[in-house]
Amino acid sequence: MPLKALLQRWQWTTLLAIAAFAVLYSLDTGLKAATGFGTVDLQSAQTSADYNQIFSAWIARQHSATAGFSLGFDFLFIFLYVNAFYYSAIVAREAFANKGLARRAANYVAFVPLAGALADSVENALEFSMMIHGANDNLARLAFVATNVKIVCFTVGLVLLVAALAGFFKLRAPKKAETD
To answer: Which residue among 82, 87, 92, 103 is least packed, with the fewest CB closer than 10 Å?
Structure first.
């Protein structure tokens, strides 16, 4: 892929992921202000009692609709952030890993956000399933494990994003030969 196209894809996916995050944040803060619990609070739930406490706070139709929409909209956010983080890894690789082991390692690290996206999808599916069909401790534990995997992979993605930001400026800077 040409460098210009890579940088454009990275910029667009990052901006769209930030916009999707802003929508989720807005929905979640409104839900938390109205009920005492937001969808982010599901990430710290470890037992069926924790989930039932949160779900019972959302019993009103408008709150359960907001929570359900947020969980569904999160799937769009997953798609956007995994692409932004993947392109971040590729931009960082192009900027800082010229050849050899560093380049191969950068290729492998680019797939860490994909593992996080899969874990996030499992987490959301389990949470939605418990919201519709009732929570149980086994599903609660599985969702908690998926959340922790997601958080680790998401953190790696954020590090890649910071590296890509530095790499973006390095790649956009004129080459020494061009300035002479």
So the answer is: 103
